[in-house]
Amino acid sequence: MQIEKHTLINDLPEHHHTIRHLKMNDNHFAKQFDQYHDVNKEIHHIEEQNEAVSDEYLETLKKQRVALKDLLFTKITETEKSL
């Protein structure tokens, strides 16, 4: 089974330039971006390897990924509005 990767660039390709700009110029955004990708990588590894973890743990990771993505998306759209 093919597991879909939820990288921020894959999920928000129309915001690629803004994401790149923020990663290079906003340390807080860059830190949250890295956290998002660390959580995403762990989720992907668990799903890809059929790793034995509790459903609660995986659900917590997925909720964390969504929360980080919401924060990042908010920053992206706020930045684009200000340009």
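Above is the first protein from milestone M3; the second protein from the same milestone is given next.
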Amino acid sequence: MHYDFMAKQKLEARTIPSLRTRDKRYDVFDVLLPSFGIRVSPSGRKAWFVFTRTAGIQRRITLGVYPSMSLAEARDAARISLSSAPAEAAVLPVPVLVLRDAIPEFVEKHARPKNRSWRDTQRDLLKFDAIADLPLSQIRRPDVVRVLDSIIAAGAATRANRALAAIKKLFAWYLDRGAIETNPIAGLKPPSKEISRDRVLNEQELRKCWAAAEAEEWPFGQFVKVLLLTAQRRGEVAEMKWSEIDFDAAIWTIPAARAKNGSTHIVPLAPATIEILASIPRVVGSEFVFTTTGRSPISGFGRLKARLDKAVGGEEWRLHDLRRTVATNLAMLGVQPHVIEAVLNHRTGIISGVAAVYNRHAYVREKQEALFQWAKHLTSFSSKGQMRKQPEMPSRTFGQIFENMSISDRASI
């Protein structure tokens, strides 16, 4: 089945040859003469047309074929057709909203303002490229299912679930806005059953990972080390800013706006971590700690992970598994579960109810001791000898740090 898709632009003689063919035909309307345009067919045929309306009935009139009829000739013919029709003639058909155009609008107006992981949502929606040129109103459940099946066939079953969740939100949003009449995938169940991950790097793999980080060039080597030493999320570490680090107090404060659970998170920094951060060159005019451009944080984690995989070997693992690995090792070192939860900035219910309210500002010292102990164990793997000795405790207390915080940051801890 063929579908007509519409776009609007200023038609110029020099741009007509650059209109490329697609799998399905599409129309390009002229912004200077809105009812006039050109239809490009999969065969390569380009036909001029104009829409007129007589007695409430809309008609498409084919004027000629390019290049036999030039743009100027076609525009003149369109004007003649419009002038000979009643005054109601120059009516442009209601634009068709295709998925390719719907995605950026949804991301910009809905996902980005409300979701800290909007980039993941955008990435998941772009996986529907195979049906991106279909109008939203003509996308059917089997169309979506076919895309999900292809994602699963590529070995990304969990990603298929995320893609379904993203496009469900998109359809629901456009349904609320009245852009479509029905949601074709309402009630569609996730295509694969997710199994909670329990991958933990063993000590040999951990040693190899640390060695690989030492072999990495700036800034990825330092990034992996800080990831391991702090047990924080990949995005939180990658987007770390100099203004968030208090070197005197040896803490890193992740603001609520960047923390996944929306709560300001204080991360004590072990001497080894402070030494690594102090060694990182600052890009003039940039707030980002890990950056190569100064304008944005580092990216390209897929390539980094490929290099780490080559060094570490073993079973498949993800960067996020490093958090679970640190948590497991902290438990082996005797750290209590509620302290590990505090280190990870998790709210899993170990401390809940009224107790959670009264313990919001607790465990900073315990987190500090846990991460200091973990850093001592981890840096013992170093092939470059012992790290330079640092003061055992920071020069400022948490009480002093807390007093200098804004009211909003205090409340969100």
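Note on the second protein: Residues 5-84 form a domain with the Double Stranded RNA Binding Domain fold (CATH 3.30.160.390).
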